[in-house]
Amino acid sequence: MCQDCKKKFYITTPIYYPSSKLHIGHTYCTVAADAMARYKRLQGYDVMFLTGTDEHGQKIEEKAKAAGVTPQQFVDNIVCGEKGVLDLWKLMNISNDRFIRTTDDYHVAAIQKIFKKMYENGDIYKGSYKGKYCTPCESFWTESQLVDGKCPDCGGEVHDAEEEAYFFRLSKYAPRVRELLTTTDFLEPKSRVNEMVNNFIDPGLEDLCVSRTSFTWGVPVDFDPGHVVYVWIDALFNYMTALGFENDRHDDLDRYWPCDVHFVGKEIVRFHSIIWPAMLMSLDLPLPKKVYGHGWLIMDGGKMSKSKGNVVDPYVLAEMFGVDALRFFLLRTFPFGSDGNFSNELLINTINIDLANDLGNLVSRTTAMVEKYFGGTLPAERQFADIDDELILMLTGLRGRYEAQMEKFQFQNALDEVFRCIQRSNKYIDENTPWTLAKDEANRTRLATVMYNLLESVRICATLLLPFMPDSCQKIFAQIGATEDITTWDTAKTWGKLSETVTVHKGEAIFPRVDTAKAIEQLEAIEQAQKKAALPALEIEPLEEQPVDFDTFCKSDFRAVKVKACEAVKKSDKLLRFTLDDGTGTDRQILSGIHKYYEPEELVGKTLVAIVNLPPRKMMGLQSCGMLLSAVHTERGEEKLNLIMIDDNIPAGAKLC
Ligand code: MSP
Fold first, then answer.
1. Residues 299-334: pLDDT tens digits?
2. Hey, is 377 helix, strand or coil?
3. How far apart (Å, rounded) are the C-alpha atoms in residues 147 and 145?
4. Distance, CA of 284 to chain centre
5. Does 28 contact ligand 1 (Cβ within 6 A)?
6. Closest Cα to atom 23, ligand 1: which residue?
7. For residue 50, what is the enclosing H or E element?
8. How are the residues of the chain apportioned to helix, strand and coil, as percentages rounded to the nearest 5?
C-alpha cells in the first residue's frame, strides 16, 4: 500500500530534561512508546514517533553555571555526549522517527510566534506574579497547593517570589477542559481524570504565569526583552513544532496532527491534560486524541532520583542482561497505568522464568528435536490429531486477544496472552512426548506434525513479540526458518504459513539463564563503585579561620625523628607503637592510630615529624610521648592519611620552625 493511503498514527513521549543522565525510569516510557510505534507499524500504519529533549529553564542554567560551562554546552553534552540521551535511545533500539530539541532554531522561532499569537488574541496578558516558587520544578504554587509548606511535586523547599510576568487565561478554559476530561476518553487511565478534576479544576483554575524574568536561559519573548517564555509552554508545543507548526523545517502537520496519543508520566498529566488543551483551544487548534498517564517505576517505595542514590543505570542493565530482555522486563512486569516496584531480583526472575525457561526453552527444544529427529528439515507429510485443535485455535485467536490489550496500552496483558500460548506449547511437547514417538518409525509423520505445530506456534508468538524484542525475534525467525513474508501482522493470525518442508537452524541460546546470586553480587559491586565515583574526588578540610598568635604557635616543639622500631600494639586494630630517635640519646615512644594506613615494617628507618612537648598520654596501658604529624584528606568519600616523611639527611632532633 502506498504511504499516503496508509492510516496514520502519531505517538510521542515527554521530552526529557537533560539536567542529568537518564535513569531506568526515564527509559520506561520511551520503551513503551517504542513498542507501541512498532506495533502500529506491524499493523501497517504510517507511524510518526517523536521524542526529544526539553532544554531550557532555570535548573539547566544553574547546573551549567555550577559546571563552569554555557547552558548550551551543558545540554549538548547530556544530549549528544557519550552515553547521553541519543546514545541511550540508540542502545535501547528506540525507533523514533524524529527527535526534537527545544533549543533547535526552528522551534525557538515557532514558540515566539505562538506566544505572540496568544498575546494578540488576548489570552496572554501582562500582570505581576506573587507566589511560592520551587526552583527545581520551575513552578509557582499557591499557598493552598503546598503540601506541608513544601512543593507538591518534588517535596522540596519553596520561597516567596514576585515578578512582572505574562499570564495565560487558563481560567477562561476551565469549563471546556472540565468537559473534555469528564465526557470523553481524552485522558486515561480514568483514575487520573478524578485526580485532575478534584485537585486542580474544581478548586478553581487560576490564570497561569507564562513568562519569567529571573533568568535568561529560555525562549525570549521577542516583543518584551527581559522576559523568557515559561518552560512548559515552550515544551508542550514541541509536539506540533516537530511536525512543522509555525515553521518550515518540517511539513507533516496535516499528515499527523492531531496526535493519537501522548504518553506521559503521572506527575506531568496536569500539564498535558489541562494546560495543553487549553492553549490549543486558545489557538483554535485540534486537540490530541489522547493523553495516557503512566505510573512510575519506584524503588523502596520512592520515585527514582539521583539524589536518593537509587538510580539504576540502563547501560549497566542492558550490558548485563541484553537490551531486549530489559525492554521486555519493563513492559511485562508492571501494569503501564500504575506504579511498579523495580528491583534487580524481579528483573532477573522475569528473564529466567519467561525468557530462559518458557520462550527460550520452547525455541531450543523444538529446533533441537527437528535437527535430531529429521536432520533439520521436516518431511512434507502431515498427520493431525484432535489434540492439535486446541493449540491451533489458541494460537490463531492470539492476535485478536493481543490487539485488544495493545489498543488499551495494556502491554502487560498483551504479553500475558502471548506467554499463555508459549506455556501451552511447552505443555504440548510434554503431552505428545516426541522422544517416545521418535522410537518408532511408524510415528514419523505424526512426529513431523507435532514439530511443525510447535514451529508455527513459535512463529506466531515471535511475530507478536516483535514490538517488544525486535532483535531477539529476528534471531528466533532465523532459527525456525521463518522468512520476512510470514512474520507479518496478517500472517500472525493464520496457521500453516511455514513451508511444509521447513529447515531449522539451531543456534546459540537466545535468552541464557542468569545466575541470580552472581548477577546480584555484580550489580551491587557496580552500584557501590558508581556511588563512590559520584562522590567528590577530593575533599579537604576548610582552613581554620581562628588566628593563632605567634607566641602560642612557637610553643609547639616540632622535631625530626627517626623510626628505630615499629610494631602493632597487641589487642588493638589501630595502634602502632613507635620507638623513635629524637636526637636526645634516649628513645622516645609514641603511639599512633594509623595501622589502617601502614604496616609497621614499612616505616622503620623513615624520618618523620613529631610534636614532642605534648603532655604524655596512656593508651592501651602504654605511654605515648608526643604525636606524629600526618596529612589528612578525603578521596571519593574515603578518609586518607599520609605520615609526613622528610628528607633522610635531616638529623634526628632537628627543630622544625
Ligand atoms: N521535560 C518534562 C516533560 C515535558 S513534555 C512536554 C519532564 N522531563 S523529565 O525528564 O523530568 O521526565 C520525563 C518523563 O520521565 C516524565 O514523563 C516522567 O514521568 C518520566 N519519569 C521520570 N522518572 C520516572 C520513573 N522513575 N518512572 C517512570 N517514569 C519516570 O518532565
1. 877 767 554 444 488 999 999 999 999 999 999 999
2. strand
3. 7
4. 36
5. yes
6. 25
7. strand 46-53
8. 45, 20, 35
